[in-house]
Amino acid sequence: MTPPVTDDCWLRYEEVTDERRHEAYRTYCANAYVSVGAPELGAVRDELRRGLGEILGRTPHLWQHPPRSADGFLAVGTPEEMQVIHDSVVVDAVDALADGGFHVKATEWEGANVLVVTASTDRGLVYGTFHLLRHLSLGRPLDGLDVFEEPATADRFVDHWDNPFRRSVERGYAGLSLFDVETLPNVDERYVEYARLLASVGVDGLVVNNVNTEIPDRPSANDAMSELGGWRLLEPRYLEKLAALASVFRRYGIRLALSVNFGAPERLGGLDTADPNDEAVERWWAEKATEVYEYVPDFAGFLVKADSEGQPGPYDYDADHVDGANVLARALEPHGGRVWWRAFVYGSHSDRAVQQHETFEPLDGAFHDNVTVQVKNGPIDFQPREPVSPVFGQMPETDLALELQITGEYTGQHVHACYHVPMWKEVLEFDTDPEGHGRRVADLLTEAGSGLAGVGGPGDDPNWTGHYLAQANLYGYGRLAWDPDLDTATVTDEWVRQTFGHDPEVVETVTDVMHDSWPAVVDYSTGGLGLMHMMYNGEARLENHYDPAPGEWPGYTGATADGIGRDRNARGNGYAQQYPEALAERYDDPETCPEELLLFFHHLPWDHTLDDGRTVVQTLYDNCFAGVAAARDLRDRWDSLDGRVDEQRFRHVAERFDEQVVQAERWCRTLTAFFYEHSGVPDEHGRVPADD
Asked: What residue stretch is flagged as signal peptide (predicted)?
């Protein structure tokens, strides 16, 4: 059932109160001449009614011709459709824009003030409209406006890990799945609201189901029901439902994709094998792809997790990942579809960090042109902080996608406030070879066939993400996927002002809270210095990744009586040597290794002295307590906004901060006791209980 209240997130569209600004906006936008030539244009007209109606305090007039009685008007369409636009822009420059690109320009036409939103594609008109509404929501001037924008990356996907038949969400912290298979093809209005949110930040693709397709969605004593795993979505009865969902998102320029099970030819097709080199298997995938496109003509493609964490894959048939990806790619190629093949493969090494580069780098250049290898930002698993995966920069002949986690699996699960944009910017700005070709991760993602994938979309919680402040991660992901060169300050300021308004004290306080939240979580949940996997894991169905339990992860903490950390260097398992020489040398020496990654690459004595004169163990103690102090400070700063933020959002976030502080204290106690238990070294400030 649809929740009674749905939050508008950053699409609040508050009325402009400045009289001069309001008059300028009214002149350009009270009348709008909007194309009606495609489904996306229906979405444009709806959004203009909604957005301009709120910003101007009155519903705009929407015309199908240039209004002659007005002082000015907004024109939205392509140069080929509208004479006013053709006369107002450089048509060749508009035609040269990448798919999704747009041009927004304030000009004059036949004596009237005209604001033009144009593009070479209908998707670009959607993005251009949202750009204009963002510009107005931020209170920016229209006079002299002349903007060309196009997406820097080809693919900008959100990967839901939703289990469609039970509506549960793996790593979901905002209620049940948005996607209710049982009620489709009836369309819930909430799908429209979600499409608006995604399109407003330039997301162009959506994977609707869990990559862990082998996991049954509905445990039951009924064997038939227990087999309803996510891979069943390839059946015709569910493709019909997918077609209804696709029709909603298509209006906003968003294509749907599916996670598929590599063993589908056996599970669904009745074959006795899923061997990618078997002709019958190749034929089955080709026929299935054709069937999918009959239901969803603009289907984006398949996302695959194979040979990892219990999922079937080409290794089951003595084949490799090129064989596995390419058989699907050949099936999708005639229809313009793409395969996103996840590089998160581990199981044959005692340290999962080693396996991805070792597996995929030798395959560079062998993948089909419509295969994108999708690589997590780090080699472990969406940790609060870890090094950038060495796969980036090491596969120049392969299309790569950067996989980021929008949801907060290891950063407080949307109970704790943790803003991911600063972490993502570190990854995007990372130089993959500082003494070689010097290409940033961001540069690698701007090539055709490359892009970004954000794991973990909203749920059916009325505020979408379970924590109002977690909305910033979805917003920030979309903005960085569109333009990886946007800086953190710009993204944050946009989100804060659109979400909470322009009160200077609110803007400053919320901005500071967001920017300080990630360092706090790193400190109290890991101790810093590159440690990771400190959380409770537990039994398979009780796994929560929320509570502290560092003792469960000896292979990651490397804690012994003589020291802590893992030797991933030349003296250890050689992981550091997977990087180009300049980086390998930097990481291999504890004197040059960045302090924030020190214990990821090195097992060091507890009394090893760092640059500031403190020992490793004392730094770990200090970081944990500093994280708690920071969490308390975040809570206090938020509490100072009482009366300046609406009661519902203020109370919700304040209560979450109360829980975050309690949990930060708990993590600190657990981790510092763990460090003391192994080191036997007391905290020099007496904060950690020691033996009598």
From this structure: none
Q: Could you please report the per-residue DSSP string of 80-108?
A: TT-HHHHHHS-HHHHHTSPTT-EEEEEEE
Answer CATH for 522-566+603-679 from 3.90.1330.10, 3.30.870.10, 3.40.50.1820, 3.90.25.10: 3.90.1330.10
Distance CA 113, CA 641 (A): 41
Question: What secondary structure letter does DSSP report for 272?
Answer: S
Token pair recorded at residue 209: 């189901």
Residue 276 — φ and ψ, nearest 5°? -65, -15
Is 32 within 8 Å of 60 (Cβ atoms)? yes
pLDDT digits (tens, 9 = 90+) for 41-68: 999 999 999 999 999 999 999 999 999 9
CATH hierarchy code of domain 158-500: 3.20.20.80
What is the C-alpha to C-alpha distance for residues 531 and 3, in angstroms, rounded to an integer?
Answer: 40
Distance CA 516, CA 688 (A): 25
Euclidean distance between CA atoms 373 and 343, whole angstroms: 6
Q: Is 318 left (phi over 0), alpha (psi -120 to 50) or beta?
A: left
Measure the CA–CA gap between 271 and 274, rounded to whole angstroms. Answer: 7
Structure tokens at 308: 């990892």
Q: Parse the chain into domains and list their residue ranges.
A: 19-149, 158-500, 522-566+603-679
**Separation between Cα atoms, residue 513 and residue 419, nearest integer Å:** 9
User: Hey, what long-range contacts does 409-412 have (CB within 8 A, 24 or more apart)?
Assistant: 409/171, 409/382, 409/456, 409/545, 410/381, 410/382, 410/383, 410/384, 410/525, 410/535, 410/545, 411/384, 411/518, 411/521, 411/525, 412/521, 412/525, 412/546, 412/660, 412/663
Residue pLDDT, tens place only, 242-280: 999 999 999 999 999 999 999 999 989 999 999 999 999
Measure the CA–CA gap between 198 and 155, rounded to whole angstroms: 13
Q: Identify the burial level of 642 via C-beta atoms within 10 angstroms of its C-beta, where 0-12 means exposed, 13-18 middle and 19 or more buried.
A: exposed
Q: State the Cα–Cα distance between residues 312 and 298, nearest whole angstrom.
A: 27
The residue written with tokens 């946007």 in the block is: 486
Amino acid identity, residue 471? Answer: Q
**φ, ψ of residue 598 in degrees (nearest 5):** -55, -50
Question: Looking at the domain covering 19-149, what would its CATH class be?
Answer: alpha beta
Q: Are 549 and 410 in contact (CB under 8 A)?
A: no
Question: Across the chain, which distance is largest between two alpha carbons, in Å?
Answer: 89
Task: Report yes or no: 339 and 332 within 8 Å, Cβ to Cβ.
Answer: yes
- What's the per-residue H, E or C state across 425-459? HHHHCCECCCCCCCCEHHHHCCCCCCEEEEECCCC
Higher pLDDT, 537 or 231: 537
What is d(CA 437, CA 434) in angstroms, rounded to the nearest whole number?
Answer: 7
Nearest 5°: the CA angle 338, 340, 341 is 135
Per the CB < 8 A criterion, the answer to whether 91 and 72 are in contact is: no
Domains 19-149 and 158-500 share a fold: no
- Any idea of the CA torsion for 224, 225, 229, 234, to the nearest 10 degrees? 70
Active site residues: 309, 381, 409
Instruction: Please tell me the distance from the alpha carbon of residue 106 to that of residue 117, in angstroms, as a whole number.
Output: 9
